[in-house]
Amino acid sequence: MKFSLALGCLLAFSFGSAALAQDTQRVRTDKVEVIVETVARGLEHPWGLTFLPDGRMLVTERPGRLRTVAPDGTLSEPIKGLPQIAARRQGGLLDVALDPNFSQNRLVYLSYAEDRREGKAGTSVARARLNEDGTALDSLQVIFRQEPSYSGGNHFGSRLVFDREGNLFVTLGDRFDLREQAQNPANHIGKIVRIKPEGGAAPGNPFLGREGARPEIWSLGHRNVQSAALHPASGELWTVEHGARGGDEVNIPQPGKNYGWPVISYGVDYSGAKIGEGTAKPGLQQPVYYWDPSIAPSGMTFYTGNRFPGWHGSILVGALSGRLVSRLEVDGNRVTGEERMLQNLGERIRDVRQGPDGLIYLLTDSSQGRILRMRPAD
Fold it and tell me: How far apart are CA 128 and CA 66, in angstroms?
């Protein structure tokens, strides 16, 4: 339906300088007045963020750097030991996630555009151990490779989300020129896959043992999924994916289901031409919610903290072309309303995360990218 409208550290982050402390903006939203403040700056197209148990953040930069960020905003030197990354156009170092048992094993997972032979690339996932002083990755293993490889530089996905059984969801793009392959279960193009933490198809996947289908596939018919999170109550995966001109979608991908791209869409092609067969077809799933015109969504979180009581249970989604944060109100499996926030910042929002302090952290997508924090104004 379309509307117009535990990391147990409870550390509260503080600024390390008066200059940062002054870099704030007061914003009125529907339910609360917030302060938006800069935590760190000087990141080149930051893409993904996660929190370490000691209160630092791990942040990816698309050109191929992984850094830690201290609570005072200090950036580390680039962490050593990353895989071979194809940093071109939309490709590069993408998402980062911690193993559910990170405190014991120090395993970090990265999704990235992998540089492959003959100018080709594909989305891959690697895991490695972050050494004790946080300066290098050791014992790196590539645990998943999207196939086939392709020379184009667009639509790599990709978000990483662990399910409650410890398996890893990986969202994958259709590589733009290969969009028709999103309907083909014999490859990973335009799919969401679910793998074991060491690699290989996860138990219970819907295409296990099916001839002519990749066993890692969870769902198919996706365009370019750059937002994903588990619902805090149900444990189901929710995603948000880019449409073309219109048709950005919120979905709850179910095992073995087909989400329609490019057979059905609520958008049109960049040329203005019709895409596929319309907006609905038997056997293909409808989105929970969609945007038309497009906001170019990237990064999402369910808000579960207590610092913004009026947002509890909402989905917060970053937007690139929209240059905003969309707050979606949810009732069960329905989106019942939308509030668009922070449009006055004029920033492309690449990722949205809830911190262990219950505040909201944002990545801005630019050559001088920042980590922003939203806190109540009281």
Answer: 13
Out of 155, 188, 222, 242, which one is annotated catalytic?
155
- Which pLDDT score, from 0 to 100, does residue 23 have? 84
Cα separations (Å) of 114 from 22, 67, 117, 366? 40, 19, 10, 22
Instruction: Note the pLDDT tens digit of each residue in 239-266.
Output: 999 999 999 999 999 999 999 999 999 9
- Token pair belonging to 48: 């993904």
Secondary structure of residue 62 in the 3-state scheme = coil
Beta-carbon contacts of residue 99 (< 8 Å; ≥ 6 apart): 105, 106, 107, 108, 109, 127, 162, 197
Q: Which amino acid type is present at position 295?
A: I
Task: Classify 45 in phi/psi space as left (phi over 0), alpha (psi -120 to 50) or beta.
Answer: left
Q: Specify the length of the chain in residues.
A: 378
DSSP 8-state class, residue 104: H
Residues of the chain with pLDDT under 70: 1-22
Chain CA centroid to CA 266, Å:
22
Position 322: which residue type?
G
DSSP code per residue over 259-287? --TTTS-SSB-TTS---TT-S--TTSPPP
**DSSP of 284-341, one letter per residue?**
SPPPSEEESS---EEEEEE---SSSGGGTT-EEEEETTTTEEEEEEEETTEEEEEEEE
Residue 312 is among the residues annotated as catalytic for this protein: no
Contacts of 40 (CB under 8 A, 6+ apart): 59, 69, 73, 74, 75, 370, 371
